[in-house]
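DATA SHEET
Item: assembly model
Revision: 1
Owner: S.N.
Input lines:
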Amino acid sequence: QVQLQESGPGLVKPSQTLSLTCTVSGGSISSGSYYWSWIRQPAGKGLEWIGRIYTSGSTNYNPSLKSRVTISVDTSKNQFSLKLSSVTAADTAVYYCAAEGGGPFDYWGQGTLVTVSS
Amino acid sequence: EIVMTQSPATLSVSPGERATLSCRASQSVSSNLAWYQQKPGQAPRLLIYGASTRATGIPARFSGSGSGTEFTLTISSLQSEDFAVYYCQQYNNWPPPYTFGQGTKLEIK
């Protein structure tokens, strides 16, 4: 069974870049079975899909965030990463990484809270 | 962008009773609809995909129905562990973005 674990700073200053990494275990990120996605959830609110990457490096991003988002993959480490630039308080949320099997999100990380504050 | 609207926002039901949650899409998503359960402090868990197919390990008391723009998640006999927030998600867009509903909180009556 695929397991995912997010890691990265829990506090980011406004205007800086948020950087998170998701480590995948229980399967190879290169298997081609999944798209590797990032999803976020502000406190007490719903879920927002940020974007995804395939093992080939092909990406899709939410148009609302596209100008600020970069998702990359490191197959040698079985990891994929999120960078979100020019953050504001509105980017404060729990960030999840997830494995998408062609639409539904089959597996999720436990989530990591990122707070944007000076 | 396809907008997903869930109703009601909060549903109060007694244990052992049936719960019916609704999800409406702003345009047809065919059967490309998933349901998730989220408990406090936890990540969402996939319950249903393809509008009506239970994910691995999901009890039979959970069932999904619908197609096009109207969908329903039914929990036939509520157990204590079922009280949570439920989200629907469409994945009909190609390429994404995928979108989620705002959630229905299922609480104990």
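QC remark: DSSP finds no helices and eleven strands in chain A.
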